[in-house]
Amino acid sequence: MKSIPSALVAVLFSSSAAFAITIDGVKDAGYGAALSVQTVETGFGDNFSEWNAGYGRIESGRLFLMLTGNLEANFNKLEIFIDSKAGGQNVFTSSGNDNANRMNGLVFDAGFTADYHLILRRGNNGGNDTFDVDFANLGAASFSSYSDILGGLTGSATTGTGVNANGIGVAYDNSNVAGIGGGAPNAANQAAALAVLTGLELSIDLADLGATGDIRVMVGQNGGGHDYWSNQFLGGLAAPQGNLGGDEAGGFTGEGAIDMTHFAGDQFFTVVVPEPSSLAMFAVGSLVVMAGMRRRGEEARN
C-alpha cells in the first residue's frame, strides 16, 4: 500500500502535539480552559501568596495540574487535597506530617472526600533556599517528605519515591507580577487572573492516586503553621471575603479546622477524563477510507 498522505500525518501529529505538556511552571495550551478562576483579591499580599486560576488534564496515565500565581518564600503552606477514588475523608485527619494535625476536623464541601494531601512550601532554611513537598496517603495514614527538590526556590524537578511509587513532577515559576490584586476582601478581576500563565505545576501518576476516572482537587493557601487560612482557594470563595484564619472570620485560634460547608459554592474543581479527540478520530477515519480507496483502485487496474 502507498504511504500515508503527508497532510493526514500532519493532522495526527498536530492533534497529539496540542495536548503536549512540559512541567516547567508555565501553562501549556494543552491544558485548555481554566477549571477554576479566582474570585477574591488576596489577603496574603499581592504577588506573594495569590492563586489566579486552576487548570488540569488527565493524559498519558498522569494527572497534570497548573496553578497560576505565587507562593511566598516564607514557608506558607499551599494545601492541595485530591479526591481521586471512592471513599476518603470528608473530615480531615492528618497522616502525621508537618504539623498538619492542626487542621484535624477540617470539613470539606459535600461531595468531596479527600484521599491524598500535598503540602508545598518554600523559603530560606538556615541560609539554604529550599522548595519542599509532602505527599500523604490519607487512607493509609502514611506520607513521604521531599526537601529542596528544586535546588532553590524556583525551577523544575521530579521527587523521589516512597508513598508515591512514581516520581512527582514539580515546577515553580515565580515571575508573575500581575493577576489579581491585594485588596481583600474585594472581588478579583477574573480577566487579569486568566492572563497569568506562570506558577506551580505538578504531574502525578494516576496509579499513585488509585484513579480510574474524574478527579476532584481542592487548593487552599494556609499560613506557616497550617493554622491560618487566607482567602485564596480554588474553587474560589464568594466576594467579599477576607482571610479565614482559624475561626472563619480572620481570627487566630492555633488551629485550622474550618468548615467549608459554611461558604457558598464548592471550594474544589474537577479534572475530567478527556474524550478521544474528534479531530484525531476524524483523521484516523480518513486514513482508513483513503487506504481502502487506493486498494480498490489498485485492484481495478490489476
Q: What features would you describe in this structure?
A:
The chain has 302 residues and is of the alpha+beta class. The chain has two domains: 1-18 and 277-302, no CATH class; 22-275, no CATH class. 14% of the residues lie in helices and 28% in strands. The protein is built from three helices and 13 strands. The strands form two sheets. Strands 4, 5, 6, 7, 11, 12 and 13 form a seven-stranded antiparallel sheet that branches. It has a six-stranded antiparallel sheet with strand order 1-2-3-10-9-8. A hairpin with a 6-residue loop joins strand 11 and strand 12 (229-234). Helix 1 runs antiparallel to helix 3. The longest helix has 24 residues, at 278-301. The protein is globular and about 40 Å long.
Mean of residue pLDDT values: 90
Largest sheet: 7 strands, antiparallel
Strand and helix order: HEEEEEEEEEHEEEEH
The Cα radius of gyration reads: 22 Å
Residue fraction in strands = 25-35%
Distance between the termini: 14 Å
Would you identify the regions where 5 or more consecutive residues have pLDDT less than 50? 7-16, 278-293
Count of DSSP helices?
3
**Quaternary arrangement of the chains shown?**
single chain
User: Helical percent range?
Assistant: 10-25%
Query: What is the 3D shape?
Result: globular
